[in-house]
């Protein structure tokens, strides 16, 4: 029986799948951990909670019932490892010359950097002056 291509043949694509939210299909923004250890964008969790109309929400992956803490998605534990994966992805994409990301702050401009502090691909306009050293560590051209 023939098997599909080995995902290890394309590590950048595999990593890209790992940093893509299953709800919005975008790069994770402020990823938060649900109690079941699956993670989603903070805004995606808030939207799921709003859609559940006060009832416990269900994890899209495992369907486990989850109630958000009083502070909502913001009070959930941050998925710091996702931010690290985004950082690694940015470095690998630069090394392979495959960076075509748009700014995650305005979604309009071509990104020129990956900010290690906020974990976003950003354009020149959204890199504050006091963060230049951090922002330009991974410079895309």
UniProtKB/TrEMBL annotation:
Coiled coil: none annotated. Residues 21-63 form the RING-type domain. GO terms for molecular function: zinc ion binding. The keyword Transferase does not apply. InterPro entries: TRIM45/56/19-like, Znf_C3HC4_RING-type, Znf_RING, Znf_RING/FYVE/PHD, Znf_RING_CS. Keywords: Metal-binding, Zinc, Zinc-finger. The keyword Protein biosynthesis does not apply. Pfam families: zf-C3HC4. This is Tripartite motif-containing protein 2. The lineage of its organism: Eukaryota, Metazoa, Porifera, Demospongiae, Heteroscleromorpha.
């Amino acid at each position: 029986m023939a098997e599909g291509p080995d995902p290890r043949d394309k590590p950048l694509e595999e990593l890209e799948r790992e940093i893509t939210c299953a709800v919005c299909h975008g790069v994770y923004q402020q990823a938060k951990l649900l109690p079941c250890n699956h993670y989603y964008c903070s805004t995606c969790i808030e939207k799921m909670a709003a859609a559940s109309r006060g009832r416990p929400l269900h994890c899209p992956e495992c369907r486990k019932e989850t109630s958000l803490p009083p502070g909502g998605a913001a009070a959930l534990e941050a998925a710091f490892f996702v931010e690290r994966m985004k950082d690694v992805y940015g470095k690998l994409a630069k090394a392979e010359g495959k960076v075509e990301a748009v700014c995650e702050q305005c979604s309009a401009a071509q990104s020129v950097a990956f900010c290690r502090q906020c974990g976003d691909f950003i354009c020149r306009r959204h890199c504050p002056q006091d963060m230049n050293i951090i922002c330009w560590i991974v410079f895309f051209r």
